[in-house]
């Protein structure tokens, strides 16, 4: 048998345990029901002590706010997804990317050839003569009054070119020997370091194609030490001729090749072993 003090202690412990169970039950009920107190049996409240009643009153105002917030978040998510998609598409061409060698390019000044090789025109830099190379709102490189970028639309890289030139471009990207596919210029012993890329020069004011010479610094990711006679094989859209453009500067560390291009055309970085 319990002595009176021990009996009183046991009763108090049992009461505290019962209160704890009721409090936990109240939390569980609130969590599982959007409108919890409309579903509680009336006699449930008769078993709540003063503190539990205060807790019940405080919790009663919460579900409506929580569910309203959830609904609003869902609506915002739908509209922001559309906005993000549009913004991402717009920014992709003008967003500046920095290579592992510190060279900056944009989506508009980066090109991927059919054979998978990539190339870029460096921006936020200067030419070998100290002329600044900036970026316009379209992501194109700007040198003086010339904006420079690459043809991106499917088919635009070879649109309007003679059939024999298109065939030569396809052969270069297929890995055929340059001496077998290029006519009008001696490329004996040369190998293609990159695939072909259609570069376009425009008037910065009007956006119209403007075939004016400009110096560009080409970022060539697979440029390495030990390559000799690094040059740029270039098809000139105006003259309709292939030519070898000498490099003004070759830097294997930053993987860049500086060259003067005569205007719009198709280019491939080449070298001799």
Quickly count the domains: 2
* Shape call: globular
Question: Can you give the helix content as a percent range?
Answer: 25-40%
Low-confidence stretches: 4-8, 26-31, 34-48, 58-90
**Count of alpha/pi helices:** 5
The helix-and-strand class reads alpha+beta
Q: Could you tell me how far the N terminus lies from the C terminus, measured between alpha carbons in angstroms?
A: 103 Å
Q: Give the radius of gyration.
A: 36 Å
Could you walk me through the main structural features you see in this protein, from its secondary elements to its overall organization?
With 273 residues, the chain is of the alpha+beta class. 32% of the residues lie in helices and 27% in strands. Strands 5, 6, 7, 8, 9, 10, 12, 13 and 16 form a 9-stranded antiparallel beta sheet that branches. The longest helix has 33 residues.
Q: Could you give the topology of this structure?
A:
Elements: H1 4-32, H2 50-60, H3 62-94, E1 96-98, E2 104-106, E3 110-112, E4 118-121, E5 125-126, E6 132-135, E7 141-143, E8 146-150, H4 163-173, H5 178-181, E9 190-192, E10 197-203, E11 214-219, E12 228-236, E13 241-246, E14 249-251, E15 256-261, E16 265-272
Antiparallel strand pairs: 1-2, 3-4, 4-11, 5-6, 6-7, 7-8, 8-10, 9-16, 10-16, 11-15, 12-13, 12-16, 14-15
Task: List the defining traits of the structure above.
single chain; 273 residues; 2 domains; 9-stranded antiparallel β-sheet; 5-stranded antiparallel β-sheet; 16 strands
């Amino acid at each position: 048998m319990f002595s009176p003090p021990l009996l009183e202690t046991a009763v108090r412990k049992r009461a505290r345990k019962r209160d704890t169970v009721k409090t936990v039950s109240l939390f569980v009920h609130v969590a599982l029901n959007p409108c919890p107190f409309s579903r509680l049996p009336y006699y449930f409240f008769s078993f709540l002590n003063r503190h539990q009643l205060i807790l019940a009153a405080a919790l009663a105002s919460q579900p409506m706010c929580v569910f309203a917030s959830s609904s609003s978040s869902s609506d915002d998510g739908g509209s922001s997804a559309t906005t993000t998609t549009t913004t991402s598409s717009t920014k992709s061409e003008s967003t500046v990317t920095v290579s592992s060698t510190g060279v900056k390019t944009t989506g508009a000044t980066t090109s991927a050839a059919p054979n998978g090789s990539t190339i870029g025109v460096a921006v936020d830099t200067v030419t070998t003569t100290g002329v600044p190379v900036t970026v316009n709102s379209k992501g194109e490189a700007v040198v003086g009054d010339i904006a420079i970028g690459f043809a991106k639309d499917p088919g635009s890289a070879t649109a309007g070119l003679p059939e024999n030139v298109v065939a030569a471009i396809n052969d270069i990207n297929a890995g055929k020997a340059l001496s077998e596919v290029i006519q009008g210029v001696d490329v004996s012993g040369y190998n293609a370091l990159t695939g072909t890329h259609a570069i376009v020069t425009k008037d910065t004011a009007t956006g119209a194609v403007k075939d004016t010479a400009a110096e560009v610094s080409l970022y060539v990711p697979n440029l390495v030490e030990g390559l000799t006679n690094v040059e740029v094989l270039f098809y000139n859209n105006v003259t309709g001729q292939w030519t070898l453009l000498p490099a003004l500067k070759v830097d294997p560390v930053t993987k860049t090749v500086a060259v003067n291009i005569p205007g719009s055309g198709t280019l491939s970085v080449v070298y001799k072993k």
